[in-house]
Amino acid sequence: MAAEKRKPELLAIILCDQVIKDLHTQKVTIVGSFSRIFARKFPAMHNHCAIYVALTDGQGTYEGEFRFVFAETDETVFAAKGEFKLDDPLQVAELNFTIAALPLPRPGTYRIEFYADGERLGGRRFVAEPAQKEVGRAGD
Hints:
By secondary structure, the protein is an all-beta fold. About 0% of the residues lie in helices and about 65% in strands.
């Protein structure tokens, strides 16, 4: 009987403008983390963002998936999948995903959820809201 594969632990999930990995040192730089997105009107598209995910305590190859979910209805508005591997439970896998256009159908609270082999490991919330008018502009 084969041993059951270890479930990875989610250490971090960060929504940001960009993730940069130094090819020489393998260190990761997270640029412009945020938890609010402002849009002039809805539905909206948030162009070019990234997600950084750090996982540990697993061993083997997993199918990873992240989902953007509108919290009020549990509607998935965007999802992506890909494989990742942890060779050793002490290893930390640092994954990053670039999203060219994130759909935001309406203002409100959204969740980013991360799954490994179909099991939810965790997530975080962010808010999409209408941008305020700029004060003092002619014609406002």
